[in-house]
Structure formats: C-alpha cells, structure tokens
Design a protein that fits this description.
This protein has 98 residues and is of the alpha+beta class. It has a single domain (2-91), classed as Alpha-Beta Plaits (2-Layer Sandwich), CATH 3.30.70.100. The chain is 35% helix and 39% strand. Pfam families: ABM.
Length: 98
C-alpha cells in the first residue's frame, strides 16, 4: 500500500475550492485500487488542507491520475490552490514495509 499526501494552500475562492475538491475526491475514490480518501483542514487556518488517499499500490495511483477526466478536475483545483503532492510508503525501523 502507498499513501498519497497533498498539502493544498488555497489562494482562490474557498467555496469554489471546496466544490472542486469534492468533485476530485469523488472521482479518485471511484478508481480501482483506491482504498480510502480523506481531506483534513489545518486547525486555525481555513485555507490550508491536506488530502490523504491510500492506494493498493503506486501503479493503481498512477492509473487513476492517468484516467480520463482526472486532468480537468486537477487543473480546476490547481487554479484555486497551490499543491504540494507526494506518494509515501509505510516504514518500520527505517525500511519500507511491503
């Protein structure tokens, strides 16, 4: 399993951002290999969010972001927030957990 982590600092309209995020979350959650997805908001900062999505493996995540419809949804979100994405794997004792 891998976890996609994306910090989003909103610089556009917050209502439009939340609507765009909802559409993108629905799309990604419906893709094969998506185990879970949640969005967190930084306490005390209405414009900073972190997306966490767990995927069966990196290939499933790559396929989801290559799927028809993803680009338009992600571009809409990027117009409203600065993303800081990364794909992470669990570690135990300093080594990746398979």
């Amino acid at each position: 399993m891998v976890t996609f982590v994306n910090k989003l600092s909103v610089h556009g309209d917050l209502g439009r951002f939340l609507a765009a995020r909802t559409r993108l979350t629905r799309f990604l959650s419906a893709q094969p290999g998506c185990v879970s997805h949640q969005t967190l908001r930084l306490v005390g900062a209405a414009d900073v969010f972190v997306e966490l999505s767990v995927w069966k493996d990196a290939d499933a995540h790559r396929a989801a972001v290559a799927a028809d419809g993803y680009r338009k949804l992600s571009e809409e979100l990027a117009e409203l927030a600065a993303p800081e994405p990364g794909l992470y794997e669990a570690v135990a004792g300093g080594a990746a957990v398979a």
